[in-house]
Amino acid sequence: MPRSTHGSSSTKTMGVLTIGGLVMVTAYTVALGSNGWLWFGWVVLGLITLGMVVTTKST
Fold first, then answer.
1. Which residue, among 41, 39, 50, has the nearest Cα to 14 in the 3D structure?
2. Mind listing the pLDDT tens digit for each residue in 23-46?
3. Largest CA distance in the chain
4. How many angstroms separate the Cα of 39 from the Cα of each of 28, 34, 45?
5. Residue 34 and residue 2: Cα distance in Å, rounded?
6. Which end of the chain is more exposed for a tag (fewer CB within 10 A), N or C?
């Protein structure tokens, strides 16, 4: 069965969003102080991205 490239592009997009989110949360923390909800949201986004990477590589 041919491999779909759709999963790969969406995984790359999630990776870019996760890294961009890390940069934004870090900048917010440096400028205005720490916000636990932002870091929690970034961790959740990172876990979703990691899950997408694992499921894409296993198929």
1. 50
2. 999 999 999 999 999 999 999 999
3. 51
4. 10, 8, 10
5. 46
6. N
Residue 4 is classified by DSSP as P
Taking CB atoms within 8 Å and a gap of at least 24, the contacts of 42-47 are 42/18, 45/14, 45/17, 45/18, 45/21, 46/18, 46/22
- Measured distance CA(26)–CA(35) in Å, rounded: 10
List the structure tokens of 24.
Answer: 């934004």
Give the pLDDT score at 17.
94
So what's the pLDDT on residue 7? 59
